[in-house]
Automatic annotation (TrEMBL):
Residues 1-89 form the DUF1266 domain. This is DUF1266 domain-containing protein. It comes from the Eukaryota. Pfam families: DUF1266 (PF06889).
Length: 108
């Protein structure tokens, strides 16, 4: 999105994504855990009850997906040949170096 809107160069975007990749590998063991974390966060932000803790707990406990959430889950995880099942969960052989324009962000 950042590259398409000319907010970032492709080099900057790849470097930021490589930093996100390293963090994902650190905090999650596989694609299913990563997607579960994403889904939980997505449900939280879609909840109409975010300012009322008991109702928020109930909403999240029911695991209410919207239609696009259901579609995304089935496309990504429904079978062994689904999209995420075909991608290895491992470090990359090479990571890009931080572009000069992002040196102030190098703590990512």
């Amino acid at each position: 999105m950042g590259v398409l809107n000319n907010w970032l160069s492709e080099e900057e975007s790849l470097w930021i994504q490589s930093r996100i990749h390293l963090r994902a590998l650190r905090y999650y063991s596989n694609w299913r855990q990563y997607f579960a974390g994403y889904t939980f966060g997505r449900q939280y932000w879609q909840s109409p009850e975010d300012d009322h803790l008991p109702l928020l707990r109930e909403f999240l406990a029911r695991k209410e997906y919207d239609d696009s959430g259901n579609d995304m889950f089935y496309q990504l995880f429904a079978s062994d040949d689904a999209y995420y099942a075909t991608l290895p969960w491992q470090p990359l052989a090479d990571y890009p170096t931080c572009p000069e324009t992002l040196k102030d962000m190098s703590d990512l």
